[in-house]
Amino acid sequence: MKTHDVQSISIAKPRAEVFAYIANPANLPAWTNAFKSADAERAELVTPNGAVPIRLETRASAEQGTIDWIMTFPDGSVGAAYSRVTEDAGDSSIYSFVLMAPPVPLEALEGALESQKETLATELVSLRKRLEA
């Protein structure tokens, strides 16, 4: 059973600008469907059962272009998402995102990841539109 999905999108903006926007957790609610609110330490995650408060750790390295999020849920389970901004030709960037399966019971894993893959594809388009506007 697959436990991850990798997606990427080209963004017609310089790497530093794309990185700065994505690395700021306060911007997560603007381009994702998953976050109702977010800051440097916590977030409110939107789930099918309503909003859930979580601890959010953003690990960002401008030098490496990496932005990773570690999410700790009220029950102590931990989820993660890993991403990277890479320079492309000219003043463009490539944003790649490794979507990890959510910390859910095994019987729900495949459906949850499939649903999140579709959502991520939409979110990446939203991110590009927002940054290129």
TrEMBL record:
Protein name: SRPBCC family protein
InterPro entries in the record: START-like_dom_sf (IPR023393)
Recorded superkingdom: Bacteria
